[in-house]
């Protein structure tokens, strides 16, 4: 099945996700889940008790894509696939989302210093045939980060809107001693899994 215009909607406010989707040449329009429809409830990102990190992140990605799909139905927009994603950092069972404050980011960076953590990004596509989700898991090893480096890093604009309080694509790259998995997944949109999901919903990466 080939969809009209080979286009999709991206339900995300993340500039990284936009950049990564552009990288693979997908035509998309951005759907903003919050601003565009003030009456629509915000996506609740609270985790459930004892919810495993993979289950949590895939549930949130699914909810974001599903909310986007409801929005296009309500606004009577063309029924093109809606793509959304969710990223978390997991350190020894502790889940780090986006820091709520500079102090929270500082706490995350101190915990990540000298340790190996996982980055999970779930990507979801909602279309006429339902919502499909795939998750990418990467392992990232940080070198020791000094208190001075943490202080200076916090003063940069980087940590505040990133899961785990760092951006691998920014200055924090110098903390990354080793990564195994998906670089684009750590940045917020795993392009391998994204390509698979889009092909499955009829979007051709190589038309
Ligand atoms: C670990 C890491 C995360 N991140 C970003 C990717 C995500 O944008 C963000 C995690 O937050 P998310 O809650 O996954 O997404 P978001 O709120 O930024 O955007 P959306 O509107 O799609 O819900 O952290 C990086 O940019 N680099 C990194 O190295």
Inertia-based shape: elongated
| End-to-end Cα distance | 12 Å
- Helical content, roughly? 25-40%
Q: What is the alpha-carbon Rg in Å?
A: 17 Å
Low-confidence stretches: 36-41
Q: Tell me about the biggest sheet? A: 7 strands, mixed
Number of strands: 7
Give me the CATH architecture, please: Alpha-Beta Complex
Query: Based on helices, strands and strand pairing, what is the structural class?
Result: alpha/beta
What's the number of domains?
1
What's the order of the H and E elements?
A: EHEHEEHEEHEHH
Q: What is the CATH T-level topology?
A: Maf protein
User: Which whole number gives the mean pLDDT?
Assistant: 92
Helix segment count?
A: 6
Measured by DSSP, the beta-strand proportion falls in 15-25%
The CATH class, by name, is: Alpha Beta
Oligomer: single chain
Bound molecules: thymidine-5'-triphosphate
Family: Belongs to the Maf family. YhdE subfamily.
Main location: cytoplasm
Catalytic activity: dTTP + H2O = dTMP + diphosphate + H(+); UTP + H2O = UMP + diphosphate + H(+)
Protein name: dTTP/UTP pyrophosphatase
Short overview:
This protein has 207 residues and is of the alpha/beta class. 32% of the residues lie in helices and 25% in strands.
Can you characterise this structure?
Its cofactor is a divalent metal cation. The active site is at 86 (proton acceptor). Its EC number is 3.6.1.9. There is one protein chain. This protein is α/β, with parallel strands linked by helices. It is 32% helix and 25% strand. The protein has helices spanning 15-23, 53-74, 102-112, 147-155, 183-187, 191-200; strands spanning 7-10, 27-30, 82-91, 94-96, 116-127, 130-142, 176-180. Strands 1, 2, 3, 4, 5, 6 and 7 form a seven-stranded mixed beta sheet that branches. The longest helix is centred in the first third of the chain and has 22 residues, at 53-74. Mean pLDDT is 92; it is low at 36-41.
């Amino acid at each position: 099945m080939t969809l009209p215009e080979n286009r999709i909607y991206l339900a995300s406010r993340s500039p990284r996700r936009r950049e990564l989707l552009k990288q693979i040449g997908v035509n998309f329009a951005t759907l903003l889940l919050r601003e565009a429809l003030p009456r629509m409830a915000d996506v609740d990102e609270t985790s459930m008790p004892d919810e495993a990190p993979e289950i949590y992140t895939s549930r949130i990605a699914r909810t974001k894509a599903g909310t986007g799909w409801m929005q296009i139905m309500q606004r009577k927009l063309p029924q093109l696939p809606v793509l959304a994603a969710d990223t978390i950092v997991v350190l020894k069972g502790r889940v780090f989302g986006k820091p709520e404050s500079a102090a929270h980011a500082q706490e995350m960076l101190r915990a990540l210093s000298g340790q190996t953590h996982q980055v999970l990004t779930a990507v979801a596509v909602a279309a006429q045939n339902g919502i499909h989700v795939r998750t990418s898991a990467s392992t990232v090893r940080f070198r020791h980060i000094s208190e001075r480096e943490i202080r200076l890093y916090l003063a940069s604009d980087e940590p505040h809107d990133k899961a785990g309080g760092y951006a691998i694509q920014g200055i924090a790259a110098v903390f990354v001693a080793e990564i195994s998995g998906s670089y684009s997944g750590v940045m917020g949109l795993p392009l391998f899994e994204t390509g698979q999901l889009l092909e499955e919903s009829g979007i051709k990466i190589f038309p």
